[in-house]
Amino acid sequence: MNPPISPTNRPFHVMTKPAGPACNLDCTYCFYTSKVELYPGRKQWAMPEDVLETYVRQYIEAQDAEEIQFAWQGGEPTLRGLDFFKKAVEFQEKYANGKRISNAFQTNGVLIDEDWARFFADAGFLVGLSIDGPPKHHNRYRVDHGGRGSAQRVLRALELFKRHNVEFNTLTCVHAGNVDKPLEIYRFLKNAGSRFLQFIPIIESASEDWVTGEDGYTHPVPPPGRKVTPWSVDAKAYGKFLTDIFDYWVRHDVGREFVQLFDVTLQSWAGYPGGLCVYAPTCGEGLALEHNGDLYACDHYVYPEFLRGNITETPVGELARSEAQRSFGEAKRDALPTYCRKCPYLFACNGGCPKERFMTTPDGEPGLNYLCPAYKQFFGHVAPFMDVMAREVKNGRPAANVMRHPVTAVAGRAVNAFPNPNDACPCGSGRKYKKCCGGKGALQ
To answer: CA-CA distance, 257 to 241, in Å (whole number)?
Structure first.
């Protein structure tokens, strides 16, 4: 039995960047390659082996869980070389002390070959492959340093994963160039063999200026008349992107295709803690480790003011559970504007990620998430279906039963053609729709 969670044993997760911000692609929307400016004059972006061993040992020792999850990202982590990750696995085995070890690895796929695929399969890595849909959409912004699209190289990696039975998922950035093609992208990924899909909205301030606000977070300061970069996704368009995919998924693919946001939303609807920091009430449990051992508060807050220290000087567990990091995480909840606190969907989004809270509420209060219109559109749209799925899960039945539910059949004929609140619920319960599948009464 694990001990009660306290400040001294609070779980945390680290996104490790063994090649730092170095990358063999030059994606237009990438926010991380600019981190080279944190280390002026640096020519090599490679985590030394002694830092790797220190990190693996400390990270395992600091966690009370029976399974320890390592996450490798970048930049592009394959630039560190295959031998580095073989050594990482050796260190994990050396210091495991009876604990189970798992590894997640995010890659752009460009350097993946037979040796990489074989290693991932043999070592049991879960690999996330970045792919923005069909080549015409993927190549719009995901180009190499010569301006060439990377789609064919990414698709080659995907085929290698399938051939070697590598466990993988796909990460798709949703931006101005592909947000209007939701079903084309979804079907492409599905037909390509992806069974676990992530959709990440690209939101980038058009300003290079950043300031630390009273809530402790660094915020972008958009210039007058221009809020975000041209490639950033429009909030309302992103909401439609999600709902269009959901409408297809809920009629055909529940239990077959797994979309991260849909899974997390169902967890919230069923009253369980969400598994994604973006939608959690507080954050601060997901840190970022740079190549030299510097530990930062979050992958999106790799700035000097959010440097917690270096693991070669202070153990990673002590830095991750510091008062500064605890305050950082609680600021997400404490800085919510009143408009958000009164929102009926607060339980599902909790204000979203603080890095995106640079808008003002209708009454002029700062701190509103840029994606608020998307969240409201999406959560409002999926509510009847989530009510049904949550009820099924709570009663020990599969969420996929929603595909045979009358509410879904109605939506199949005409999206949003749900009964009036006081009508009899189409599920046949005899209750009013607002007290059954159309309201929170479905969860009781």
So the answer is: 17
With a cut of 70, say whether residue 442 has pLDDT above it. Answer: no
Q: Are 429 and 387 in contact (CB under 8 A)?
A: no
| CA–CA distance, 312 with 17 (Å, rounded to integer) | 16
**Confidence (pLDDT) at 414:** 36
Which run of H or E residues covers position 173? strand 167-174
**Which pTM value belongs to this model?**
0.87
Q: Rounded to whole angstroms, how far apart are CA atoms 108 and 145?
A: 14
How far is residue 44 from each of residues 80, 295, 392, measured CA to CA in Å? 10, 18, 53
Q: Does the structure show a pLDDT above 60 at 247?
A: yes
Query: What gap in Å lies between CA 120 and CA 157, rounded to an integer?
Result: 12
* The one-letter amino acid at 376: K
How crowded is residue 311: how many other Cβ atoms within 10 Å of its Cβ? 24
Q: Which residue has the tokens 């789609």?
A: 151
pLDDT for the residue numbered 287:
98
Place of tokens 């009358």: 406
Catalytic residue list: 299
Percent of the chain exceeding pLDDT 90 equals 78
Please say if the pLDDT value at position 136 is more than 90. yes
Neighbour-count burial for 378-396, b at 16+ CB within 10 Å, e otherwise: bbebbbbbbbbbbbbbeee
Question: What crossing angle do the helices spanning 260-269 and 235-252 adopt, rounded to 10°?
Answer: 80
pLDDT-derived band at 3 (thresholds 50, 70, 90) equals: very low
Burial class (CB in 10 A: 0-12, 13-18, 19+), 189: buried
Cα–Cα dist 51/293, whole Å: 6
